[in-house]
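seq as requested:
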Amino acid sequence: MLIVHPPLARSCEPPAALAHLAGALQRNGLPCRIVDMNIEGILSLLSSRVEANDTWSRRAVRNIQDNLEHIRQRQVYASRDRYQRTVQDINRLLAIVGKQYGIVLSLANYQDSVLSPTNSDDLIKAAEHSADNIFFAYFSKRLTDLLAEEMPSCIGISLNYLGQANCAFAIIGFLKKHWPDIPIIMGGGLITTWMRSPTWRNPFAGLIDLLIAGPGEEPLLTYLGGGIPEDKALPDYRQLRDLPYLAPGFILPYAASSGCYWKKCAFCPETSEKSPYRPLSSQQVNAELGHLTAATAPGLLHFLDNAISPAIMEELIIRPPGPEWYGFARISRHLTDPDFCRGLRRSGCVMLKLGIESGSQKVLDNMGKGINLQQVAKALEVLHGVGIATYVYLLFGTPSESLAEAHETLEFARRHHQEITFLNLAIFNLPVGSIEAESLEITDRHQGDLSLYHDFRHPRGWNRRQIRHFLSTEFKRDPRILPILQRDPPFFTSNHAAFFV
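struct tokens:
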């Protein structure tokens, strides 16, 4: 089987889904070739001839090979100015090439002004006109060579982000045109969200032979006749380990669980998609990390869990994984305990991502977050004191928020500006499948049959234009907040943030 990770997504670490599928298939005696066409495709564009008409672009063209080497060197991250210049120059080339194709292309995203990834008709057009895709020269040759070499019985496409959708369907269109008898299977996070939407009707029957929602190991094994394993296979990164990702050393992505152990937050996709919580035991996590770190020698371990459970944190304290690590965590009493957090730091924890969302207790209660601001403040203080960086996520425009509550969030961030290392500011989107959507007035249902979100009339009149105005004129300009925002690595954001602490 051939499994592909299509462009475009951030390219600093290997796609964990492909490693999980490879491990499961190969453990059951089913040969598998996995190809990260995202990093390969990006590098192919960066090596193409670019027409440079200004000083910045000429510098970016002239220095591209040096910049690609620099972004893989740890010492570049010691100088924020040098790092930002390196990243901006690399991104400059992608933007220039993208403009030639009428798309907005960056190191983090792919946006087509004509073909929408949330409209199935447009994705079908992307498949029908695959030669128009910006990555066509790369993937047409790569796939031709791969299929001549491998002759796979079927081909899998892992689709996780909207920025990958147009390219994924262009790849499918090319495959269907030249190898129409090879079945195509598609899964991944975005496919799961689409298929679990209450409005889902499969529009891709003529293009895709099998769509898979949720973890793909068991459905793939069933499809290929390999049987169902009694226990989970170890992810296999051997085919991805030596690819030239845009990071200083190999980053090992690892999940100690799927789903979320809290699963009570309003508007959360984990709830609307009915994703079960499936944790691994502490012993299994310890054993798997031992094998994986020995096999890959990572410079950084990235936990992919929606929230690393306190039980796993305790295991990491007792038996540190070896490399430094980071990931998402829920605010809990454990993070207010200095001894516990010192243990985390000794285990290699360099950064925790925290979904605090709001500085208003009323908003947090209405969201079902299950945290209080006193506990949040104490956790920030303790984590800062032991040397663990915090990447804090704030969300504006939830139905219970107004300008008054947004000001409370601003005040909270001001009070704790010394303890917040990085900030991510987002405007609330109403998920299509959310149960809570039934209590709101939906104003726009024609954005596309694959839309992930509804537009809605905010019950407190706090619309997106007002939120953007508040963020741009007040929040982001605050002299205590601005330096935090300026620390965020451009394009790579939290994926590179741990290298700066």
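The chain has a mean pLDDT of 95.
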